[in-house]
Specification:
The complex is a heterodimer of chains A (672) and B (573).
Chain A (H helix, E strand, L loop, with lengths): L5 E3 L9 H14 L3 H26 L1 H16 L8 E7 L7 H15 L2 E6 L7 H13 L5 H9 L16 H10 L3 E6 L7 H14 L5 E7 L3 H7 L2 H6 E7 L3 H12 L8 E2 L1 H15 L2 H18 L17 H8 L2 H12 L3 H9 L1 H35 L8 H9 L7 H12 L2 H14 L8 H14 L15 E8 L2 E8 L4 H24 L9 H4 E2 L3 H7 L3 H10 L2 H4 L21 H11 L3 E3 H12 L8 H16 L3 E3 L6 E4 L6
Parallel strand pairs in A: 2-5, 2-6, 3-4, 4-5, 7-10
Antiparallel strand pairs in A: 8-9, 11-13, 12-13
Chain B lengths: L1 H25 L8 H13 L3 H11 L3 H7 L11 H6 L3 H26 L10 H13 L19 H5 L7 H10 L9 H8 L20 H10 L5 H12 L2 H9 L3 E5 L5 H16 L14 E4 L7 H12 L10 H14 L6 E6 L10 H11 L3 E6 L11 H7 L1 E5 L12 H8 L9 H10 L3 H27 L4 H17 L3 E2 H10 L6 H13 L4 E4 L5 E4 L4 H15 L1
Parallel strand pairs in B: 1-4, 1-5, 2-3, 3-4
Antiparallel strand pairs in B: 6-8, 7-8
Helix pairs in contact in B: 1-2, 1-9, 2-3, 3-9, 6-7, 15-16, 17-18, 21-22, 21-24, 21-25
Classes of the chains: A alpha/beta (672), B alpha/beta (573).
Main location (chain B): nucleus
Pfam family, one (chain B): RecA-like_ORC2
Subunit structure (chain B): Component of the origin recognition complex (ORC).
């Protein structure tokens, strides 16, 4: 089996082996109590999130998609009269190439469902030259509505007799025949990654398509990651004349991710939240590496999965679970949470010994407390999210620079370091200084947000403001007393010394009233924010309603395979945990223990050598280490060296060198 | 063969001589003078078989200070010892260096004493003198090892005892060993510094030792040896696999949630995929379409490492399971993939189809369309891909697009298990050391093939071998010119070898013209045909050099080529 290329798995036949495996499974089930319940809770929670995500995604680029579909539909109407140029859509989809595939497949669905068109996506990978491109195009289009069989016939046998010479498989004549049969309104060819195509291929494609335009209703769509100008520069003037282009801008993925973040993580109503560390990592990864909506969603999903799979107390997130449903282990698990311990300690400090005793002893009372606290925690997080949104809104409407994203604000708030931070103070100060026209915008947008949690009566403030503005007779907007423009600096020279003194300009009646209003608003918002911006991690049961472990997440999405292999070879003890190879235990620091696996020894010798390695010397060094004490060279040692060498080669650490006989070249350095 | 052997014997003697001296020189306080003498005979005995093994071993036995030296062993290979004397002969600089060196030795000894007498001796004890000593030491770094490492004889006249034992330069092996002990190259460099250090110009000086062919095992010997070998870490390795096995349920859950798996880490991951496949199999047996029926779940296992595994094989295998047999499937991979995916979308199977790919990063699956098509396959929700990757840089296979498409979750599955199935050890090593000629059974194999070929082919092969030999001789001509000047010789050879070896093999054109001259063939087509036969039997190898000219050569080393040429000409005549 092991040397076959592919095969279908057949279990080993001996029955005796089945028993131990079964035993293993039962023991595993015990270690994962109520897994099914937790997983069903997970599915419930995730389904909710997923729905939001889907909605956001659909809304995100629906406008662009609609426009493109409209464009396609409009281009098809001019049938009959010969077209001078190919209708072309230039889709500026931005640099996040990973989400382009998704975009184009969705676009394809829309185009197919709303217009009577054939749609084929071409990627640069499939089309190294014009011939393969056309072949691909022919295949994709002709196999769209036919069965594979018919398509094969079409290519292989049929029509050759009727139409004289047999058509080659990259001849667009196939498409024409197919078009005669199906009579679609248009044939949409989407070039997903136009930048990756060879320019010559694109030019030739345009030429070819143009020459067929009188017979086939082609429409071209180019996906562009850079800019339409750049695309234009690449094409020759002649082919540009064949194109009749229209530009479409796609929502950039970072904007979409920001939206996704606000509907999933920072959403007011989420049963499980992703903690600040993890969301920070997710966002950073998006920013620095992937820029990919799908990846962000996967990350979120995996976080949800890990929480419900690995953490037993997550069972308490289940809706409608009663005390009787839960075994005592669940409560035991809660009692082991660090936040439980912290809570108990604070209770003890407050002198509630009896309460602590009941909590420790009675599962039922603990259950009540848990239910209460989970609700508390969730409300606290909800109000935190709302406050973050409000905060973001204030900054946005007052146009405070630098602009902060909601995700940044939320992560900082959830980490508990927003309240009291310079960012917070700056924002509140700008609020105080805001003039009436800006404040008006703020209040309007606040009213639109329609937050339930905050006790601030936006409408009332708005009315008061309106009244003030109407009463004011001046032309400019009202200014508060903290506005810099109401300050004036007075310079006095007394005994050759310059004294600077600040003076408040005399405030008009309206301005005074306005200042009062602003101060009142400021105080209320400040009060609300300080109450909302708590540190969620300090709360009891924060482990349950907030998932913030980076451990499985990072390894699973950003693995360091090279590091893992290097570590395994450089310090095999880390993995094997054997008593013989522990470097720390042997006092002789840095000795190559002969007990290590052969490859590890050879690897460490390899690490110490230069770019060119003499295999013979490596061999003898290895023998010196392994054969300590033995009198003659053992074929076993030779075999081990050979195996280790072969493994180094297989892992791509060395390669043959022709510089000198029996030398190998090093091609990988540890830790780089 | 005879000459190197004698040399080696010489080396062995030298080496046994050398070792005690070193010990004495290094730790005069510790070692009594006669102790090395006791050791010598035994070592000489052993030296006959594994000359190199002997020396470092003695050091290994020593506790304490020497161990530091051993760590750095291979590093030292980089410096060729015999370069020192050649420089010293230049004249004046030698004296300066010499003075330097004795200072260094002094300082070194002082440091050694310090460490031996009291490791606990505190920093305050390290006065100016010690600082100076250290500075001197670090100044010249590994230029020459600490007193141990340098072949001092020619330059150190003040110790007559050492001079008496002087050995000629160029006795490669033991010199190398001595160097191994030098703790000179800087230790604990950050990775990038180490890279530049090891790549510094002139930094790659290695000895000219060659591996005797007897050392390399052939397939039979290798498997025989491995059969009797028992892994020392068997229990730990089993434990690793057991640890990974605890994650099987988690992995299943991840698969169910629409992700695919990719396992990485050192060691063959086949035991894990095997066990996990079994796990899936058993799980599937308990699920609806298979439960209570005689139907068995079909899990596709693909061994990417198997030579010439192609995407077509994989897709055909999947198609054979997914698409009912009465339906015609297209032949082209792309079309096949599309029809598989279409079929899966239209008539989804009750349970997703698990596909296990061992070594998804194998060279056979790396080429351009394969990764992207595998990603397309993996992206389908009814395909569950469980793959393993062996090389450290495998994520480079996929750009973000592909990576997102394939929805991989990565798990570290280090097993330390030998890559028995993945690697053909003997073959890989032969290829690594440029001895792929061994593949066809060496000289005998070639003779066997040649006998079955027409005379023209034999003549062509003879021409190739003689041409190649002629080239080799031309390369070495300079080295042999001043052969009698033994001490310098090696160094010269070392420097000359580099340009010489870069032009390896016979130019295609040259060979063709020679062949035409000797009436071996009359046209290039005939020439090609003859060469193809050799290629098929892997008797010759070809490559384009930097200038783009094709070069051909017989993958043997000089001695073997010589005897081959002899055989061929005797056959002919």
């Amino acid at each position: 089996m092991e040397h076959e290329k592919c095969y279908i798995y057949a279990p080993p036949e001996s029955n005796s082996e089945e028993r131990p495996s079964k035993r293993v499974r039962t023991s595993k089930l015990q270690s994962q109590p109520q897994l099914t319940e937790r997983l069903s809770t997970y599915r419930e929670v995730w389904a909710q999130q997923e729905e939001r995500i889907q909605q956001t995604l659909e809304n995100a680029d629906s406008v662009t998609q609609e426009n493109i579909v409209k464009f396609v539909a409009a281009s098809t109407t001019s049938e009959g009269e010969p077209q001078a140029s190919i209708p072309t859509g230039l889709i500026v989809a931005g640099p996040s190439i990973a989400s382009h595939g998704l975009f184009f497949s969705r676009l394809g669905q829309n185009i197919r469902s709303e217009t009577d068109s054939a749609y084929a996506v071409l990627t640069s990978g499939e089309c190294p030259n014009l011939k393969t491109l056309l072949k691909c195009l022919v295949k994709k289009i002709t196999s769209l509505k036919d069965d594979g069989d018919e398509h094969d016939d079409l290519i292989n046998s049929g029509f050759s007799a009727r139409n004289g010479p047999k058509l080659l498989d990259f001849d667009l004549g196939h498409v024409q025949m197919w078009q005669d049969k199906n009579e679609t309104q248009s044939i949409v060819v989407a070039i997903q990654d136009s930048e990756a195509f060879d320019t010559a291929v694109l030019v030739e494609l345009v030429d070819t398509v143009h020459s067929w335009l009188d017979r086939l209703p082609f429409i071209l769509l180019f996906g562009i990651a850079t800019s339409a100008e750049n695309f234009e520069d690449r094409m020759s003037g002649k082919s540009l004349r064949y194109l009749d282009g229209q530009k479409f801008d796609v929502t950039q993925s970072d904007v979409i991710i920001e939206k996704l973040f606000s509907v999933t993580v920072a959403n007011a109503d989420a049963r499980l939240r992703i903690g600040p560390t993890l969301s920070h990592r997710l966002l950073d990864r998006q920013k620095d590496h992937v820029q990919n909506v799908q990846d962000f969603v996967d990350g979120l999903k995996y976080a949800h999965m890990s929480h419900f799979y690995a953490s037993y107390p997550s069972i308490f997130l289940r809706k409608g679970s009663t005390y009787t449903d839960l075994p005592s282990e669940a409560f035991e698990a809660v009692r082991n949470l660090p936040s439980f311990r912290r809570w108990i300690e604070t209770l003890l400090q407050d002198g509630n010994a009896s309460e602590v005793r009941t909590l420790l002893q009675s599962d039922q009372s603990l259950h009540e407390e848990i239910a209460k606290h989970i609700k508390l925690g969730q409300t606290a997080l909800t109000s935190l999210s709302q406050a973050a949104i409000l905060f973001h809104n204030i900054r946005e409407s007052l146009q405070i620079s630098p602009p902060f994203r909601l995700s940044t604000i939320w992560t900082r708030a959830a980490a508990g370091d927003l309240s009291g931070s310079p960012l917070y103070r700056e924002t509140m100060l700008s609020l105080k200084k805001a003039s009436s026209d800006k404040l008006k915008q703020l209040l309007i947008s606040m009213e639109r947000l329609n937050m339930e949690g905050s006790s601030i009566d936006w409408a009332k403030f708005n009315q008061n403001l309106l009244k003030l503005v109407q009463n004011s007779d001046g032309s400019g907007p009202l200014r508060s007393q903290d506005d810099v423009r109401n300050d004036s600096v007075r310079t006095t020279v007394i005994a050759q010394k310059v004294l600077l003194s600040k003076h408040k300009a005399a405030l008009s009646e309206q301005d005074k009233a306005y200042s009062e209003l602003v101060a009142q608003l400021h105080d209320e918002i400040d009060r609300y924010m300080t109450s909302a911006f708590i540190d969620p991690q300090a709360m009891f049961l924060s482990e349950i309603f907030m998932y913030d472990l980076k451990s499985p997440h990072v390894e699973v999405f950003q693995p360091k395979p090279r590091f893992a292999i290097e570590r395994a070879l450089a310090t095999p003890h880390d993995y094997l945990g054997c008593s013989c190879c522990d470097r720390n235990r042997t006092e002789e620091e840095g000795v190559l223990a002969a007990t290590q696996p052969a490859t590890a020894i050879l690897y460490q010798l390899f690490l110490e050598s230069g770019t060119l390695i003499n295999a013979s010397d490596l061999w003898s060094a290895f023998e010196a280490i392994v054969e300590e004490g033995s009198e003659e060279s053992d074929p076993k040692t030779s075999a081990l060296i050979q195996r280790a060498l072969a493994e180094l080669r297989y892992l791509g650490l060395v390669k043959p060198s022709r510089k000198k006989t029996d030398h190998i070249a090093k091609i990988m350095w540890k830790g780089l | 063969m005879a000459i190197p052997k004698r040399k080696r014997e010489e080396n062995e003697n030298l080496e046994t001589d050398a070792t005690p001296r070193k010990l004495r020189a290094q730790a005069p306080d510790e070692e009594s003078a006669n102790e090395p003498e006791i050791q010598t005979p035994s070592r000489r005995e052993r030296g006959q078989i594994a000359p190199i093994a002997a020396t470092p071993k003695s050091i290994l036995k020593k506790p304490g200070i020497f161990n530091d030296a051993i760590v750095s062993t291979p590093k030292s290979t980089r410096k060729l010892v015999f370069e020192t004397p050649s420089k010293s002969t230049n004249g004046t600089p030698a004296i300066v260096r010499n003075a330097d060196r004795s200072a260094r030795r002094k300082s070194n000894r002082r440091l050694l004493e310090l460490t031996i007498n009291g490791v606990g001796s505190d920093e305050e004890d390290l006065g100016e003198e010690d600082a100076l000593a250290e500075q001197i030491l670090s100044d010249e770094e590994e230029r020459t090892g600490i007193n141990v490492a340098i072949p001092e004889e020619p330059t150190v006249p003040d110790t007559p005892s050492k001079r008496g034992r002087g050995r000629p330069k160029g006795s490669g092996k033991n010199q190398k060993l001595r160097k191994q002990r030098s703790p000179t190259p800087p230790q604990e460099l950050p990775p990038h510094e180490e890279y530049f250090w090891q790549n510094r110009p002139g930094g790659t000086k290695t000895s000219n030792n060659t591996l005797s062919s007897q050392n390399l095992l052939n397939h039979d010997e290798y498997f025989q040896a491995m059969q009797s070998y028992t892994e020392r870490h068997e229990p730990e390795m089993d434990l690793l696999v057991e640890l990974h096995s605890r994650a099987y349920d988690q992995w299943l859950f991840e698969l169910e949630e629409g992700f695919n798996l990719c396992l990485y880490g050192y060691g063959s991951k086949r035991p894990i995929t095997d066990a996990f496949t079994k796990h899936i199999y058993e799980r599937y047996l308990t699920l609806s379409p298979y439960k209570g029926t005689r139907k068995t779940p079909k899990i596709i296992v693909i061994n990417g490492y198997a030579p010439n595994t192609s995407l077509k094989d994989i897709l055909a295998m999947i198609a054979s399971i997914v698409i009912p047999t009465n339906k015609k499937v297209p032949n082209q991979p792309l079309a096949l993939l599309n029809s598989i995916l279409n079929h899966l979308t239209e008539t989804p199977p009750p349970l997703p189809v698990p596909v296990v790919i061992n070594s998804i990063d194998s060279p056979y699956l790396r080429k351009s369309p394969t990764p992207s098509m595998l990603a397309t396959l993996a992206a389908h929700s009814h395909i569950k891909l469980i793959s393993t990757a062996d090389t450290p840089n495998f994520p480079l296979l996929w750009d973000i697009g592909l990576r997102t498409q394939s929805k991989f979750l990565f798990h570290d599955a280090t097993t330390f298990a030998p890559y028995d199935a993945e690697i053909d050890t003997v073959e890989t090593v032969n290829e690594l050391l440029g001895r792929s000629g061994r593949r066809i059974g060496g000289r005998d194999g070639i003779g066997f093939v040649l006998r079955s070929l027409p005379e023209n082919a034999r003549s062509l092969f003879r021409i190739l071998v003689t041409e190649q030999l002629a080239l080799l001789f031309m390369d070495n001509a300079n080295d042999f010119d001043d052969a009698p000047a033994t001490p310098k010789n090696k160094k010269v050879a070392a420097t000359k070898n580099v340009p010489a070896d870069t032009v390896q093999g016979v130019e295609y054109r040259v060979l063709y013209h020679k062949a035409v001259e000797e009436f071996v063939c009359s046209s290039e087509v005939g020439f090609r045909t003859l060469l193809k036969e050799f290629h098929d039997h892997q008797m010759i190898e070809s490559r384009k050099d930097a200038m783009g000219t094709e070069r051909l050569w017989v993958p043997f080393r000089q001695e073997e080529l010589e005897s081959l040429a002899e055989d061929l000409s005797s056959d002919m005549m």
